Structures are given as structure tokens and as C-alpha cells.
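[Meeting: bench + compute handoff]

Bench side (C.D.) handed over the final construct sequence. Compute side (W.E.) agreed to return the predicted structure before the next meeting so the bench team could plan truncations. Sequence as handed over:
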Amino acid sequence: MNIIDAARMRAVTRYPDLVEWLRTSHLEAIDAMDDLLMTQPAAVGGADTLLIRAAWRRGAQMGVKLVTVFPANAGGALPSIQAVYLLFDGRNGEPLASLDGTELTYWKTAADSALGAQFLAREDAATLCMVGAGAQAPHLIRAHCAVRPSIERVAIWNRTHAKAEALAAQAPVDGVTFEATTDLEAACRGADVITAATAAEAPLVLGEWLRPGQHLDLVGGYKPEMREADTEAFARARVFVDARETTVGLCGDLLEPVKAGRFSPDRIEGDLFDLCRGGLPSPRAAADITLFKNGGGGHLDLMTAGYYVARTAGG
């Protein structure tokens, strides 16, 4: 079995290549995918989570990711999210590879959002607002800058300002100006692209802050109680998702606007399968506000695992 650790993954991955791999992978069908989500009360409050995500492309490959989310780990020796991924031959069930699922998740999640931005964000986007400064944030910054190399400045906001300062000091992309900010509203209003990767359960990005031409990318919320943007943001935007199966009826960002009667799933203009196969249903006007809900999903893990196997075969 091919054992692909985090170091090997980092050595072979380039965001432009991975985004293109995901684009072409969406041209093929996924025959089945499903999730199992289990939670238990955490000793420090809140909940610890075990998430199992599986996907199957018949006659090709199938795989499963096992993810643990232990929020109390944040700031300690272990990350709050840890995972392992197992890939199997879809023809005979033979185990093909074991991958570091945590590293796979970082790259997959960021490339997913970047692929959405490639279709939806203005080509001349110059400023990016990063909401959240956790382990996923530098990946999102790199991925968005890879598909929009016009980005010149990145503002980073985090509840704990010291983490935003630390990430800004790292300067994840050469030739780009980074700053940490305590003024989330001003950072959002001034950005061409906003990407949020937090565990927020109350909206951080407000629709009244959005201006014509912006692109909003919501990454962090994957459970019904999690929200990163308010109902007004969905009411004002052209809304897209990475996959309807992993977002509609599952993510709080979408559930709450529907409950409020200000948004309907029928208003979702497309997912990545639609965009990769047919492009935007109508051209992006200069004044359009676009919103992309990144819900993840086992199909994306399966696609990304295939990328790593292809690039490490025989290594």
C-alpha cells in the first residue's frame, strides 16, 4: 500500500495543479457518497466529533476519511481536527493508499474554495479578507491568490488578535502585503474577496457590509448550528455551493435563511459539477455579489486522494 504522509503531500502539491485536477474530476460522475456524524459531550464543554465521509466512483476508486474534531486541542500540541484517509481500488476493493487525512483536508478544502472563486470572483480582485487564522487559513490564502494572482493585499481578522498577527507575520504568499486587523467590518467592506474559515455559531460577516462586485467564500460551517454569514448576505447574493448533497439541509449558513423565509434552495444557481461542466448560468455582471458555500464532502476527498496517488506513484 502506498503510504502518503504530510511531508510527501506538501512536496508534490501546487495549488494551480490541484485546482485544475478538481475541475476535471468534476466532469465525471460520483456514484455514491455518504456521511456518518457522531458527537459526544467534551470534558471542557461543547462536543467532540467523529465524522466519517465516504465516496465511490464505480469501477475506478472508492475511499473513506475518518475525521476527529476535538476543539479543546486548539492552541495545544495537537490540532483540533485530525484525520486519516484510505483509498481503495473501485474494481476489486484492494487497498491502494493510506494518506494523512489532516493534510489532505487542508489542501482539498482550500482548492475547493479556489475552484469556486475561479468561476465567481472578479478577475481583477486585488484585496482579500481572511476571517479566521486557524490552520486552514494559510491554505485558503495561498489557494485564492493562486487563482487570482491580481491579489495584492490580505487583511486577516481573528477573535484572538495575536493569532491574526502571527499569520500576517508569516506572509504565506510572496509579493503580497499582509496585515492583521481588529476591524472586521472595515476589512470586509474593503475586500474584493472574503473567505471565512471559523467555528462560529453566530454570523460574523453581515450582508449589509457587502458591496457590488464582491465574492464571499464560506468554509467553516458544516453543522446546522454553525453560521459565518447572516441571512441578508444570502438575500443579496448570487448563491452557489460546492455540492448540493453536502450543503442543502445540512449547513446552518443555508438553513437559517430558509427558515427566515428570505432564501430558497431553488435560488442556488449551481454547484461545482454544474460550473465545471457548463460554466455560469448567466454572465457575472460587475455589480453582482457572489457567494460560495464550501461544504466539503467525501467526493472531494476522493478526487484529492487520486491527485496524490497519481503524483507519488512509484515514489
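W.E. noted at the follow-up: The mean pLDDT is 95. C.D. will use this when planning the next construct.
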